[in-house]
Specification:
The protein is an alpha/beta fold. Helix content is 36%, strand content 19%. It is globular, with a radius of gyration of 17 Å. It contains 9 helices and 6 strands, in the order βββαβαβαβαααααα. A 6-stranded mixed beta sheet has the order 1-2-4-3-5-6. It has 2 domains: 132 residues, Rossmann fold (3-Layer(aba) Sandwich), CATH 3.40.50; 55 residues, no CATH class.
């Protein structure tokens, strides 16, 4: 059974989906953008069945999530803020070491976490984001910029919010593969405590 807990970590409130026994080794599941910890709801039972405890926090500013929304861009810094959030969340649950799994933006957080807290990282699984040094080398920079257009969009005050709330985005017209689970249905499940 998955439950939602609210914890204070690194000076901010975070919603964390939790499943499994507190005595089991933890797997921390970090979501991508634009989503929340709810994206891991179908994987969490399998993680528990395999003998682990699963935690899926809503990272700061998660769409439809229950964690605090940053007021300034500096409050979204992966190494200075978000990674410390993850460490603080682990502390709140009494977790010294964990398997860290991240997807998309969560994979970038996972890479940084493993680099900054190697003693707390049992292993790292990064989905959809390779090692940061590959991006820093610039070898694929032009191609990657084309694939990351949405990052610029979401950094424009007011425009990102409008795009996320628009019916075009919610209905999956921007990403047709999302039509099966529109944002409004997910939002309703969150409000009803069903996620």
């Amino acid at each position: 059974m998955i439950s939602a807990k609210t914890v204070l970590a690194n000076g901010a409130t975070h919603r964390v989906l939790v499943a499994g026994a507190s005595s089991d080794t933890a797997v921390v599941l970090l979501h991508g953008f634009p989503s929340s910890g709810v994206v891991w709801e179908h994987q969490m039972p399998a993680v528990v069945k395999a003998g682990f405890r699963a935690l899926a926090p809503d990272l700061r500013g998660a769409v439809g999530g229950g964690s605090e929304v940053p007021r300034e861009n500096k409050d979204c810094s992966i190494p200075d803020v978000i990674v410390k959030d993850v460490a603080g969340i682990m502390d709140e649950f009494g977790i010294q070491k964990a398997h860290i799994i991240g997807h998309d933006w969560g994979a970038a957080v996972a890479w940084a976490f493993a680099a900054l807290y190697p003693e707390r990282t049992l292993n790292l699984t990064a989905v959809s984001v390779g090692h940061p040094s590959n991006y820093m080398s610039g070898s694929h920079l032009g191609e990657q910029r084309q694939k990351s257009w949405y990052m610029l969009l979401f950094n424009q005050p007011g425009i990102g919010e409008e795009a996320l709330m628009s019916m075009r985005w919610a209905q999956g017209l921007v990403y047709p593969e999302c039509k099966d689970r529109p944002a409004k249905a997910l939002e309703a499940r969150l409000l009803l405590g069903m996620a």
